[in-house]
Amino acid sequence: MGMQKPSIPKGTRDFGRKETAERNYIFDTIKAVFRTFGYVQIETPAMENLSTLLGKYGDEGDKLLFRILNSGDAFAKADLSADGPSITRQVCEKGLRYDLTVPFARYVVQHREEIAMPFRRFQMQPVWRADRPQKGRYREFWQCDADVIGSTSQINELELVQIVDNVFKRLDINVLIKINNRKVLTGLAEIAGFPDKVTDITVAIDKIDKIGLDAVKEEMLQRGLTPEAVEVIEPVLLLSGDTAGKIARMRNLMNGGSASGIVSQTGLKGLDELEELFGFISVAGIRSAVEIDLSLARGLNYYTGAIFEVKACDFPIGSICGGGRYDNLTGIFGMPGLSGVGISFGADRIYDVLKGLDKFPASLGSSTTLLFANMDAAVVPYLIPVAAALRAEGISCEIYPDTGKLKKQFDYAGRQGIPFISIVGSDEMSSNMVNIKNLATGDQRQFDREDVKNIKNFLQN
Fold first, then answer.
1. Are 380 and 353 in contact (CB under 8 A)?
2. Helix H segments across 312-400?
3. Which of 116, 118, 335, 436 could form a disulfide with 150, with the two C-beta atoms 3.0–4.6 Å apart?
């Protein structure tokens, strides 16, 4: 047999030193902001029991679950004369997690005795989906979620908006934060006279950015709405102006002012919630643009209140962050009535935006600040304590391990992006000095070997 060329599964990626440093910059920024709002980090296992995952993401989602074969010879005990799905159930009892929300719900129910409510948690871990890989869609990708559960107050929604604002200001990305409320969408279906077609209506209007108003109207008719119903919905999609004006016009429509004359209590409640949230936002000193977008309809199945979506203003890409409120996350595990609200940052898309706008700090790629050249084996014992003293001060340094030609060591520093090099020979040793050169500027200085403070200043300025 010939040597097999190494490869990785389709839809997965290796991250080299540079990508990992850039990704950590994103994760560390998000983490730091979460912590300033009192969110605590938890982690859950890569695999969950299949019974935890199945039936939580709809039929489509169930198909995308990666299943894990039972250990040992999984097929030995199975009844192989059964149908496919039943064989699968016999040989796979576990699966890789599909998102972080269902494991979070499981965690809360399982650990409810030790959790103080409201519980604010964040989680940054990979998830797996057996999707067809394509550009920007992977089978393994990271999610960064923050949720607060056990409180219905909209102060929680406000804080999520503030978190988004803070994160993207720190990353230097201009964003537009769009907000809607699921109850307003329900109300819209009610005043249109089709209360059972909320999903049909929202799936259609969610495409307005992509296909335009006329195509959306056409799709609503194809989904079984009447021209009269479409006439009720159309003015909502054309609303413009400031928040107060949008809410006032919507209030009038929900209060019997539409072509149908129907009143929707649910819709009015949703408008009350939006008004309260935008009241909070107006005094919070938020720097990003925030607007009501009544066509926003993401993740309908479980959102019951506020819905958020965040778009980058200066770079063409889908939403880079989104979320909303759900009233019954833990009900599926037998603990009903816990309301929560959460958001998820799209790490891969944020990475693409930072890359596209060239916003990553230049210094991320290098891990070592100072390389001690190895000219002469006799010098190494002299260098070891200097390197140790600098590391104790938080300066990253390495001693080139093999004695050899200087050119090779300079090449290494260049390839690794190491900014400083120290070349110490017998002269420096006899006078107890170290010699350090800034490779970018050519500036070269000599220091007493014990003078860690000044060496550190030179390396950091």
1. no
2. 347-356, 380-392
3. 118
C-alpha torsion sign, points 25, 29, 32, 34? negative
Distance CA 376, CA 113 (A): 63
CA distances from 186 to 24, 120, 278 (A): 40, 28, 20
In the chain, the number of structural domains is: 1
Of 239, 217, 214, 240, the closest CA to residue 230 belongs to: 217
Interatomic CA distance for residues 207 and 211, integer angstroms: 6
Contacts of 64 (CB under 8 A, 6+ apart): 57, 98, 129, 130, 131
Q: What are the tens digits of pLDDT across the range 240-270? A: 888 999 999 999 999 988 888 888 999 999 9
Structure tokens at 60: 């489509």
Closest CA to 26 of 353, 265, 250: 353
| Apex 203 CA angle, 199 and 204, nearest 5 | 120
Phi, psi of 395 (to 5 degrees): -90, 130
Asked if 161 and 173 touch (Cβ cutoff 8 Å), the reply is: no
Going 167 to 171 to 177 to 183, the CA torsion angle's sign is negative
Is 223 domain-assigned? no
Question: Per the structure block, which two tokens stand in for 111?
Answer: 């650990």
Q: What is the CATH number of the domain that holds 384?
A: 3.40.50.800
Pairing of strands 67-69, 92-96: antiparallel
Q: pTM for this one? A: 0.87
Helix (H, G, I), strand (E, B) or coil at 419: coil
The 3-state DSSP class for residue 32 equals helix
Q: How far is the C-alpha of 71 from the C-alpha of 87, rounded, in Å? A: 15
Interstrand relation of 140-149 and 119-128 (parallel, antiparallel or unpaired): antiparallel
Q: Is residue 374 part of a domain?
A: yes
Query: How far is Cα 441 from Cα 461, in angstroms, rounded to an integer?
Result: 12
Q: Provide the residue range defining the domain that includes 382.
A: 366-460
What is the spatial distance between Cα 450 and Cα 446, in angstroms, rounded to a whole number? 12
Contact 183, 266 (CB under 8 A): yes
Identify the bridge partners of residue 289 per DSSP, sorted by sequence position: 176
pLDDT in tens, 77-118: 777 777 777 777 778 889 999 999 999 999 999 999 999 999
Q: What 3-state DSSP class applies to 365?
A: helix
What angle do helix axes 265-283 and 243-254 make, rounded to 10 degrees?
170
Instruction: Mark 296-309 as b/e (b = at least 16 C-beta within 10 Å).
Output: bbbebeebbbbbbb
- What is the Cβ-side half-sphere exposure of residue 57, based on CA atoms within 13 angstroms? 19
Residue 163 lies in a domain: no
Distance CA 443, CA 419 (A): 11
242 occurs within a structural domain? no
